[in-house]
Design goal:
Blueprint: H1 7-10, E1 14-20, H2 27-35, E2 41-47, H3 54-64, E3 68-72, H4 79-91, E4 97-100, H5 111-118, E5 124-128, E6 137-138, H6 142-159, E7 171-174, H7 175-180, H8 192-203, E8 208-212, E9 215-216, H9 227-245
Parallel strand pairs: 1-2, 1-4, 2-3, 5-8, 6-9
Antiparallel strand pairs: 4-7, 5-7
Length: 249
């Protein structure tokens, strides 16, 4: 595991957080692509004790490159928990921008450049698959696309949040935005985690913008989508709406 960055070494830098579970084939491809986008970008791999050796590969990459860091965890604890751990790690250091990004090929690294530019004027930048009514998804089975598209519509209809891609996991956060959200109050863990983060940002009045990305289905490894994750997203949006109405959000 890499040594913690000092304040001097991370001042003004940006951190891309990549949660992993069994991504040994994708990680050696993805990290160099991320780092190539800007010399001020660091990568934090948050590995949930992958049995396929992903954590060991990440540690080897971190040992070879000071811009790569690893946060190992002891169990598969969910996407939301992994990102919260990554956010806390980044906020303990003076990174100015923190990104959420998948380890597979689905999120295009070249979009980071546009997101960095947009973050100069916005608190949250969302890499969106559904900007202006368009669908920019490649190689997804129709069933998966429908779940995603109508899931975002469902979340938007109930929460009244003006975000087209509520469930999307490719996002850029200014550190001030994350500090404005009380991360200790986050209760969602699967894809509902993405909805809750955006909803809390919306209710805080943070400046949010969606930019189009081309989302491409992974070509190796297994998707982490499950029926349990879908069920959580279905009921969690009602919980968020109720908490908001009661003034308890």
């Amino acid at each position: 595991m890499s040594q913690p960055s000092t304040a001097a070494s991370t001042a003004g830098r940006m951190l891309v957080i990549v949660p992993t579970y069994n991504e040994r084939e994708n990680l050696p491809r993805k990290i160099p692509q991320i780092l190539a986008q800007d010399p001020c970008i660091d990568v934090l791999v948050v590995d949930d004790a992958s049995p396929d050796g992903t954590g060991e590969i990440a540690a080897e990459m971190a040992a070879a490159d000071p811009r790569v860091h690893v946060l190992p965890r002891t169990a598969k604890d969910g996407l939301g928990a992994a990102y919260l751990a990554g956010f806390r790690w980044g906020l303990e250091r003076p990174y100015r921008l923190l990104f959420e990004m998948d380890a597979d090929i689905s999120h295009p690294p070249e979009a980071l450049v546009r997101m960095i530019q947009e973050a100069e004027h916005h608190d949250v930048v969302i890499g969106s698959r559904y900007v202006d009514g368009r669908v920019t998804v490649s190689n997804w089975p129709m069933s998966r696309l429908l779940i995603s598209y109508f899931g975002s519509w469902y979340a938007r209809a109930i929460t009244r949040m003006p975000v087209r891609d509520a469930t999307g996991g490719f996002n850029c956060w200014r550190r001030e935005a994350l500090e404005a959200i009380d991360l200790s109050r986050i209760r969602s863990n699967g894809y509902a985690f993405q909805i809750e983060l955006k909803f809390r940002a919306f209710k805080k009045g943070l400046r949010m913008v969606e930019i189009p990305i081309l989302f491409t289905e992974r070509d190796s490894g297994d998707s982490k989508m499950s029926k349990r994750i879908v069920r959580e997203a279905i009921w969690r949006v009602w919980w968020l709406r109720l908490q908001d109405l009661l003034g308890k959000l």
